[in-house]
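User: Is it possible to get a 3D structure for a protein together with its bound compound? The compound here is heme C. I've pasted both below.
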Amino acid sequence: MSQNPNEEKIREHTFDGIQEFDKSLPNWWLFTLYATIVFSIAYWVYYQKAGIGLDQEQELEAAFEQISENVAKAKAEAGVLDDDTFAVMAKDPAIVSAGQTIYTQNCAACHGQNLEGGIGLALNDAEWKHGANPLAIKKVVAEGVATAGMPPWGPVLGDEKVNQVVAFLVSKQAK
Ligand code: HEC
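Assistant: Yes, that's possible. Here is the predicted structure of the complex:
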């Protein structure tokens, strides 16, 4: 056995005439290994266990949601009034609470304090005789149903308040 110039221990086994020093792994290598282990645990907790991180599909979904929200906001700013803009209004607490006040004062007598119905139809269920989408609801509220005892509210409340009360109804709409 030849003398090791650095006097480092040589391991006893020989394989095909090859011998090895008995050295520990370099620190940079070990720390890299430990770092990957720590990272993998953190990654696992973040994405799998705690569900904080979004996976690709959820990210895509969130992005699409953001896009349609931006489109709806842009439409609202441009004064376009359609089902999307009502959906945005229905998430605006100021508009919804204004709509609720209008509802309590003008609609609750027939449609119930909690939209449960009475003389008028229930507005908290999934059944919409005249259509469930916001524009259809707005049409009924604004124009009424003369033959069935639903008064037209457009002339009484004006357009803005009709929109607010419709946004309130949309915010309460059963999905
Ligand atoms: C005098 C009673 C009365 C009042 C007050 C009244 N409604 Fe109605 N409403 C009715 C009746 C009755 C109907 C059912 C019409 C029908 O059968 O076609 C109705 C229908 C509706 C519908 C359609 C429901 C559906 O299933 O398609 C909406 C929406 C609605 N009312 C909203 C309102 C709002 C908002 C107000 C307040 C601004 C209001 N109503 C006030 C009596 C009333």
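The chain has a mean pLDDT of 90. The CA atoms of residues 8 and 21 lie 7 Å apart.
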